Amino acid sequence: MSRRLLCLGAVRRLAVVLSVSLATCAVAAASASAALTSHGQLLRLAPHPQSNTNSSSNWFGYNQGTLEQGTKLFNSITGDWTVPTATQHTAGQAEDSSDWIGIGGGCIDAGCMATDSTLIQTGTEQDVDSTGAASYSAWWELVPAPSLTISNMTVEPGDHMHASISEVVADSDVWTITIEDVTRGESFTQAAPYPSTHATAEWIEETPLEIGTDAGFASLPNLTNPAFTSATTNGAPAGLKASRSSTSRTRTGT
Fold first, then answer.
1. How many CB atoms lie within 10 A of CB 235?
2. CA separation for the pair 162, 62 (Å, rounded)
3. Is the pTM value of this prediction over 0.90?
4. Positions in the chain whose pLDDT score sits under 70
């Protein structure tokens, strides 16, 4: 099955648990193409025994919300990570994963009683096909439009990635999205209008949602640790804490 999908104004996402406001499909830059994988579309949370920690079956990493942060709104976010090595977990099975930073889409409060309906994000993809061959790429996405693969960037396991998302002017809803492969000296920047709620910030590794005939959550490959570092929001250190993490109940690596 082809894993590519043209970005068309009429394309709508599959129905998801999060209530997503419909936005105009982003126009792809010349250096990008749309992918059949949907990132950040479904934050499935389950109660976790640790105070102020939530357990997700498809997201794991860190989330900060406006109510949990004392009504703080998020106008910018940065984060670094090392692209994990993906290897096949189950023979004969295609498996996908992604690492990203984003504004929106997460838990607004510490108990995750409310979630954000918007999401702007950028990150890397680490997949294996049914033969076990691995592939790596970078992408960006404005939910609910399809994610766009950055075709002019080479991504390999072990590469140091740096990403940032920021408003050109605070509360203008015009954003600059940048992702850089520091190891290879390659970068991509895209400006885009997007009506964000500014309510949450995330540093996430995810099993993405597949769109198409075999729609549903992807299976997760074995992954080396992609720990996020150098995290900031609104230009200041984010101070990521385990007590504010969204931990996964799925397998997170070898």
1. 10
2. 16
3. no
4. 1-57, 209-218, 226, 242-254
Letter for the amino acid at 243? S
pLDDT of residue 140: 97
pLDDT, position 37: 52
Name which of 36, 10, 25 is nearest 145 in CA terms: 25
Query: What is the per-residue burial (b if ≥16 Cβ within 10 Å, else e) of 58-68?
Result: bbbbbbbbbbb
CA nearest 55: which of 254, 223, 252? 252
Distance CA 250, CA 181 (A): 28
pLDDT in tens, 102-156: 999 999 998 888 999 999 999 999 999 999 999 999 999 999 998 999 999 999 9
Task: Read off the DSSP letter of residue 71.
Answer: S
Sign of the CA dihedral 58, 139, 81, 179? negative
Q: Is 88 left (phi over 0), alpha (psi -120 to 50) or beta?
A: beta
DSSP 188-231: EEEEEE------EEEEEEE-PEE-STT-EEPBPPEE-----EEE
Structural tokens at position 73: 């709104």
